[in-house]
Each structure stands twice: as C-alpha cells, then as structure tokens.
C-alpha cells in the first residue's frame, strides 16, 4: 500500500513538473513570436495618502491628483526605449481613466481563477487593433503594516507608540496581452528594489526623505517617485523576458 502511495505521489509530481514546463515553453514561444507591440500605462494620475498603525487605525485613505507630473507619459517613453531593440513599438490610443478605474489586481493569488479584467478593455478601448501584443502597465497593491492596502503611487505613514515610519511607493504590474486572442501571455508585479528597511511593501518603495517637507516638496516627491519607476521598470521587463536582463 505504501509503495502505491509513493508511486502515486511521484506520478503526480511528475505531471505537475511536465505541465509547468509545457506552460513555460508555450509562453516562451508566444513571446518569441511577438514582433509589434503597443504600450498602455495607467498608474500615475492619482497619488494615495495612507496612514496606518496603532495610532491611525481609524483614519481613512486620501488621494491627490498628480496628473501634471506626467508619470504615464514617462513610463511609455521608458518602456518604448527598453523594448525597441527587440520589438517594433507602435503608439496606441486608449482611455487612461478606464484602465485606472480597474482596482482589482489579477496578479494576486486570490484572483488567479478570475478572468483578467484588462482583456476586454484592450479589445474595446485600444487603437489601433491588430498588433501582436499590448504591454499594459497598471497599479498594483500591497499590504502595509496592520493589513491596510496601499496601491499605485503614494505616500504611506505607519505609526507606532514609539516611532513613525514613512514610505513613498510606486506599485505597478505589467501584463503582456495577445493582440489577436487577447489572452494574457505573461504578467508580473514589480518587485521591491530594497527590502532592508523597517517598513516594507511588496513593490518599489523607499523611505520618506525629510527634504520632502520643504517648499520644493512636490518636485522632490515627483523626482523620487520617478526614480523608483525608472530603476524598477528595466528589472521587471527583464524578468518577464521582454528585454535583456539588466
């Protein structure tokens, strides 16, 4: 009986490994077949302001418009530069607000069985149609401290009885959506750049600098957020095998 159980487990493990290998091979071949891409970015119109911790449990999140920062335009330009050596990148038109309105992250494990909400949006809202693939860059979520969600671009403060900790963050995820079938070929959330701080998020973030409080705080904050994106995007696209890894 024991031998049969061991054999069954071995066969099950082998099946899982073979299925994973086949899926990887299929994904790799589909990526290899891509020649033309369009880039959609919708993370940078709004900044969240979040407080959490022992002394801020009742506070609600706030937001502020940062559309003047032009973060999405910067992301499209950087992604175009990174992808151009391998793909022919074509400019596309889309309703940024429609993509930004989707808050649910399909990268999260709880959502893996759901239909990705961006598939139909790419089919209906992006022009021109008919490219081999569309690279869609949107907000991602992470939990802060006591479990409160933060997402996209923002400032987060976590308070304890003894100290306050502040973070800036630029949380985003990247999808490669097939331009014919609109299947999601690949998707990945940008990983942390540095996970050594006291307060950590599952994505690009950094400590709040005291210079953000000065008269030039808006420009300093914009530059710091842009730096998080500029440093993390090459890594994320490289990890997705869309570019040569940096």
TrEMBL record:
Signal: present as a keyword of the record?
yes
Q: Which UniProt keywords apply?
A: Signal
Renumbered to this chain, the signal peptide range is 1-22
Protein name per the record: Bll5875 protein
Q: Which organism is it from?
A: Bradyrhizobium diazoefficiens (strain JCM 10833 / BCRC 13528 / IAM 13628 / NBRC 14792 / USDA 110)
